[in-house]
C-alpha cells in the first residue's frame, strides 16, 4: 500500500507490546530480587541486581541433572519423532499399496485423539511395561505422537520431483540409501518445522512428566517450579530463577525459527 | 526395483512409526473405550455394565461441571481470541518501523509452558491488594476485584490468561493471510471512498474468512484440552470452579481409581474432539 510509515503507530503498538511482555519482565526482574526486596517491591524494577537466586537454584537437588533430563527428553523425542515419521512418510509415498494407503490414514488418526482420553490406560501400560518413572518412558510417550509430523512429511515428500528419486534408483541406490542420501535431505524445510513444533510440545509439556516422572531426580524443570510455588512459604525469586532458565531455550528457538513457525501453521493448519 | 525385498524394506520403514503410534496412542484409546463400558477398578474382576458409566458422567456433578466449564472455556476463548486477533492482525498491517518486533513480542507467549504462564499471572491477578492489576485499579480509584478467590473471577482469569497466550500467534497467522490478499481490491475500495473500517469489513475479513473458520475449529479443539492454565493459576479452585475435563479424569481415575467413570469421561472428550476435527477437515476442503 502507499500509506506512509507513521511513528505514532509504532508508539501505540509498542505500548501494547509492553503490556503483553510485562509478565516476562516480571519473571526476569523477580528472579533478580532478594526475598526482602520481592516482598517490598514485587512488580517494579529491582534496585540492586542479585544473581544469587540462580546460584541457589542450582544448589540442593542436583539441578544440573534435572536440566539434563529436560534436554535429553526433548532431544531424543524430537529425533525419534522426526526420523520415524519421515521414514514412514517416505515409504508410504513411494510404495503406495492398498495397505500403505490405509496406514497413511491410520497414522493420522492422532489428530482426533486427545491425550486425556489415553491417559489412564497409559498409566496401566506404563506400570506393566516398567516404563513408570523412567526417562525413556517419557520419551516413548512423546515419540508416539507422530501424526502431525507424519502428515507434514507426507506433504513434503509427495511434492518432491519424482525424477530425483528415480535417478537414485538408476544409480543403484536401494530403499534405504535413497531415503538417506536423496529424500531425507530434500525435506529440510519440513524437517525444520517438525523439529520446532515437536520441541515446543515436548519442552513445554507438563501433564506427561507430572504423571509419569515421580521421583525428584528424574523430574524436569517445570516440576521443580511447581514444587517451589506450591510450598507454604514461596521463595518467588528462586522460583522465577528456575522459570527464567526454562524460558531460555524456547526463546532462542523462537528467535531462529519464527518464520518457520508461521509457515508451518499456514501449511498445516495446525498449531502445537 | 519393485522386488519382494524392496517391498519388505518399505514396510520396515513404516514399522517404527506404526509400533510407537499403536502402543502409545491407539492401544490406550481402545482400552479407554473398553473400560468405559465396565466397572473396572483396582483388584476387581472386570464386568460389563453397559452405558451405566455414561449415566454417571451426567449425574456426577463434579464431572458434569468440569465438562461444562471446559466447554464454556473453549467457546468463549475461541470467540474472543478470534475477534481480538482479527483486530490485531489488521493493526499489524499499518505501516510502521517496528512491525516485525511487534509481531514477535505478541507471538512469544505461545512458545512457553502453560504452567509458567499461570504462575506468572497468579501474582498479577492476586485477589487482595497485593495483585498488580488490583493495585492499578485502586490507583484509579476503583475497588479491588476478587480475581482468583471467587468462582466467576477465577473462571474469567483463566480465560484472560488463555487470551494472552493465544492472541499473538492467531493474529500473526491472520496477518500472514492478509498479506496474500490482492492489493487491487484495496485500490478499488479506496477509489470507492471506503474508510479504514469499511476496508476491513468489506475486503479484509471476507477475504480471509475461510481461513478464520478453519482456525475456529482449531482453537475449539485446543480449548477442550485446557488443563495447565487453571492448574497453575487456581489449582482448579476455588470450589472446583475451574476444574476441567482433565481434572475430572485425573480425580476420578488416578485419585479414586474409578476407571469406569473416568474412562467414560475420556470417551466423551474423544467424541467431541473427533466431531470438531471432521468439521475442520470438511471446512478446510471447501476452502481449497
Instruction: List the total number of helices of chain B.
Output: 12
Structural class of chain B: mainly alpha
Helix content of chain A: over 70%
State the separation between the terminal residues of chain B, measured CA to CA. 36 Å
Number of domain modules of chain B: 1
Supply the CATH superfamily name of chain B: MetI-like
The averaged pLDDT of chain B comes out at: 88
| Helix/strand class of chain A | mainly alpha
Q: Any low-confidence stretches of chain B, pLDDT <50, length ≥5?
A: none
Q: How would you describe the oligomerization state of the chains in this entry? A: heterodimer
What is the average per-residue confidence, as pLDDT of chain A, rounded to a whole number?
A: 85
Q: Based on Cα principal axes, name the global outline of chain B.
A: globular
- List the total number of helices of chain A: 14
Uncertain regions spanning at least 5 consecutive residues of chain A: none
Please give the share of residues in helix of chain B.
Answer: over 70%
Instruction: Write the CATH architecture name of the largest domain in chain A.
Output: Orthogonal Bundle
Rg of chain A is: 23 Å
What distinguishing features does this structure have?
heterodimer, A: 272 residues, mainly alpha, MetI-like fold, 2 domains, 14 helices, globular, B: 288 residues, 12 helices, 0% strand
Describe the structure.
The complex is a heterodimer of chains A (272) and B (288). Chain A is mostly helical and 272 residues long. Chain A folds into two domains: 1-50, no CATH class; 61-268, MetI-like (MetI-like fold). Chain A has helices at 7-31, 35-40, 52-58, 63-94, 98-107, 115-129, 135-143, 147-158, 162-170, 175-186, 188-203, 207-212, 221-229, 236-268. In chain A, helix 1 packs across helix 14. Chain B has 288 residues and is an all-alpha fold. Chain B has a single domain (60-287), classed as Orthogonal Bundle (MetI-like fold), CATH 1.10.3720. The longest helix of chain B is centred in the first third of the chain and has 32 residues, at 4-35. Chain B is globular.
